[in-house]
Amino acid sequence: MQIAIVGGGASGFMAAISAAENYPDARVLIIEKNRTVLNKVRISGGGRCNVTHNPSDLRFFIKNYPRGEKLLRKLLGRFDAAATISWFEKRGVKLKTEPDGRMFPVSDSSQTIIDCFLKAARNANVEIRTSVSVKSFSKITNDTQQGFLLYTDQNETIYADRLLIATGGYPKPEGFGWLRSHDHEIVSPLPSLFTFNTPDNDLLPLAGVSVQDALVKISGTKHEWRGPLLITHWGFSGPAVLKLSAWGARDLAEKNYHFTCRINWLPDFNEQQVREILIQEKVKTPRQQITSHARFGIPLRLWKAFAEKAEINENLRWSEATNKSLNKLTELLTNSQFEVKGKTTFKEEFVTCGGISLADVKPETLESKSVPGLFFCGEVLDVDGITGGFNFQNAWTTGYIAGLHIGAENVIEPLHQNKL
């Protein structure tokens, strides 16, 4: 049996190794259009590779997937984050957990993960071909052969008994054209992890300043997220914004990425509590200059920026502060508003929502419902997670399970079977 896997990324490699180890008599071939493989693994996590997220109860873990939760509920029950950790450890790679739950190789190098996959693939006799692009494929439906013909940019035809698509997401619908022609519904792809551009933001000069806990909301929607926030040269980033962008991906696209975001820089306090604490400072530290010491743990540069916007000059003492200026400062701390006019892809870690409709695949095996012998895994499916290792976990899980089933004898239905 010949198994062809189109795509030499995270899910493609996991699927290839899973297939080769479970079906040792099969010939497993990875076909990658780029000169090198596992390119997204190489750059992820700033070159450290955020392999997965610390295992937790399945009910909580799947809440980190804006799309695909129902499918992953079934699949993670068979290969979850704990299984991922064990898979790597058995192959000599130990992972460590950071305070926010993200897990990285102890080496802090993505090359460790790449080397692990290359070695495992080599040990399982997986063949790897690079710089070869599959432009299209056709299904063979005659009485003597059941399989696929793959047509490459090298004017070459490759035969496969089973075919797995692990090409990742495409930024535009046209990228899925070669799959749509095989009767698969494509959920329109859209960016899922991106930062907010706020060109009229008075805080842009503070690029690099961050807070560890802020609540970011998108006005006019129910979307909000609480977590670390980073001020950038173009607007806002950090986990709170990135995770919010994933949940709001489709709504924000409909708004053409023009909307108002509101930030509560002190999510543990409500507006009244903040106002009362500021007023108390007039009694507690009447002689102290307001801008000399930040309150609430706010970075001093950010505190000074808020004070300036509240018309509090740098020499003003607490005893001299007016209720009007303290009210304005309270509003800025608990309900700052910024006009977002566009987005920026988060570093090079491009993630999309959209892809092959999950209604078109068998949830137990990830085989196509309409084309027997054709499988899908990874981001080419309409599944995406928030930042923190969840997208890679989707790659490992779907890749492992697709590989587990792709060589099974009963995958292909008899050609002349009567369907009742």
Helices, by number, come to 13
Gap between N and C termini: 29 Å
What portion of the residues fall into strands of 2 or more residues? 15-25%
Counted up, domains total 2
Q: CATH homologous superfamily of the largest domain?
A: FAD/NAD(P)-binding domain
The CATH class of the largest domain is: Alpha Beta
What percent of residues adopt helix (DSSP H or I)?
25-40%
Which structural category fits the helices and strands? alpha+beta
> What value does the Rg take, in angstroms?
26 Å
Query: What is the CATH topology assignment of the largest domain?
Result: FAD/NAD(P)-binding domain
Q: What strand order characterises the main sheet?
A: 17-16-13-14-15-12-18
- Total strand segments: 20
- Biggest sheet record: 7 strands, antiparallel
Give the overall shape, derived from the CA principal axes: elongated
- The appropriate CATH architecture of the largest domain is 3-Layer(bba) Sandwich
* Average pLDDT rating: 94
Helix-strand layout with pairing:
Elements: E1 2-6, H1 10-22, E2 27-31, H2 39-47, E3 52-53, H3 58-61, H4 69-75, H5 81-90, E4 95-97, E5 102-105, H6 110-123, E6 127-129, E7 134-141, E8 146-152, E9 157-160, E10 162-165, H7 177-180, E11 186-191, E12 194-197, E13 210-218, E14 224-231, E15 235-237, H8 239-247, H9 249-254, E16 258-264, H10 271-284, H11 300-309, H12 323-334, E17 336-341, E18 343-345, E19 352-356, E20 374-376, H13 390-405
Parallel strand pairs: 1-2, 1-10, 2-6, 10-20
Antiparallel strand pairs: 3-5, 4-5, 7-8, 8-9, 11-19, 12-15, 12-18, 13-14, 13-16, 14-15, 16-17
